[in-house]
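A protein record pairs a chain with a discrete description of its three-dimensional fold. The following entry can be read in just this way.
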Amino acid sequence: MRALGTAILTVLIAVLFAAFASVADASAACDAERGIGLSRIANIDASNGPLFGEYTSYQRASSFLGPKEVVLTFDDGPMPWITKSILETLDTHCTKATFFSVGRMAIAYPATTREILARGHTLGTHTWSHPLNLPRLKPESAIDEMERGFAAVAMAAGQPIAPFFRFPGLNDNAALLTHLQNRKVATFTVDVISNDSYIHDSARLIEYTLAQVEARKGGIVLFHDIKAATARALPVILGELKARGYKVVHMRAAAGFEPAPGYDAHLAPLLAKAQPPGKGPLIPFYAAAIRPDAAITAATPEVTVAPEAKIYVARANETGVKKPGAKRLLQRTALNTTAHSTGAGARVRAKSQSISTDASGSWATTFSSGWVTTVAQPRLRRGALD
């Protein structure tokens, strides 16, 4: 019996040493010589509901970026098999990004949602179900999409998230911007569109993204952490940006966001399905070793960005107005595809809107020009989401 106990202890010690070795490896993954690193941290005061980025027709706040400075942003995730690859690349390059997660995706993959925060990135939201026609929904439905998205991402994260929001397809309007302003939320459009929703070849994506960054000399860059080409291209893009003299600025929130009450009853069962008893989300063991607070950002200059409040005035026929340069983002919204399913999930283009829940708890939302995901188990089919 004593021999058995000694053997078990030996195995446990070996496991612990292996775990600590993995921590050391993860910490060493940050290559300060080759990585692009961080130039500055911008602490965004969202209390006046500012709007940042070029792709909007509304009055925006002044840019907090200088020449050859970029902010890295990723929309639509998390999708573990892609998001984690992106997180590894960011770690290797000693840099940080902002993720605008879709509520349903965060609830489906809470472990990956928490890993984004554990690795020191900023987590904002991108609605509950990603309707590209958000401004054309009834006001109460549009507001519910935004509020439910915040509540879902915060619940999946298990901690406060940033009061940062991005409209699907960059389709904003005055009424919704005003609502976000009243909720003390900062809205972010973009300055540089990588076009990774439509470019599936990583070499072409690298070339196109760098050309767009160079044309603008920096800015808020839009990627998606649901695109395999983005994960493949990102290491080269970051290396090239460093070689060309670009710097990364990381956005952080001056204060966390408090979700609206009333969503827990609907969201808690969905989260429970994604993390069955005994299989709750685990913060990666190495998280403490790679958090940027001590290793990366200790000596990084910080600046507080606190824009004055703006008044968002409705445009004439504003729901029908296209924003300059956004055509590429929307070029596929009229297309419909057939559903692709693999038991655990399915996505489909659709023209109608409906919400259904069956007795087993599976649910689906279909909406105009968006994507749909049916979740019965916490794994979704690998496929393209806009």
User: Anything to note?
Assistant: The radius of gyration is 21 Å.
